[in-house]
Amino acid sequence: MNLLLPLTHRLISSPKTLATAESCTGGLIAHTLTNVPGSSTWFKGGVIAYANEAKTALLGVQDSLIKNHGAVSAPVAKAMAQGARKRFKSDFAIATTGIAGPSGGSPQKPVGLVYIALASAKKTIVKKFIFKGTRLSIKTQTLKKALGML
User: Fold this and answer.
1) What CATH number does the domain containing 128 carry?
2) Distance between CA atoms of 144 and 70, rounded to whole angstroms?
3) What mean pLDDT is predicted for residues 29-57?
């Protein structure tokens, strides 16, 4: 993947580390990153927090965030990324939460809605996307945008 080459060079040439917290991508980001030879020097690990209970138990996402905003929301994505960074003691963490479809959407939160968060010690950035296509296509588009954010 074209996005991996510059990312890999940056991470290998610096002492920075990365962790992931994935919901809608189901481990696709971690899978892609670990296909890079030498990724063990900068990839600390990841959590697939698909169920809300996993988001709270494994990443420290507060129940109130999920109840007030829904699992697919900017506040939850932010908390997931911050929780992964803390859990893995990494310099950066990327988190994804969304609705990959083909069902599960609503007028307020349609299929293809995805939030991606990138956390560092200084700040956490969250971006909202609405992707089109099949389930796999939405997951792949999320992967590409997440790697682009890094």
Assistant:
1) 3.90.950.20
2) 24
3) 95
How many whole angstroms separate alpha carbon 44 and alpha carbon 30? 10
Residues 63-106: tens digit of each pLDDT: 999 999 999 999 999 999 999 999 999 999 999 999 999 999 99
> What type of residue is 87?
R
Contact yes or no for 2/19 (Cβ under 8 A): no
Element (H, E) at 94: strand 92-98
The Cα 29–Cα 114 span in angstroms is 14
Q: Using CA atoms, how far apart are residues 84 and 59, in angstroms rounded to an integer?
A: 6
pTM of the model: 0.93
Q: Kindly state whether residue 36 falls inside one of the protein's structural domains.
A: yes
Give DSSP secondary structure letters for 5-71.
Answer: HHHHHHHHHSS--EEEEESTTTTHHHHHHHTSTTGGGTEEEEEE--SHHHHHHHH---HHHHHHH-S
| Number of domains into which the chain is organized | 1
Measured CA to CA, the distance from residue 54 to residue 42 in angstroms comes to 24
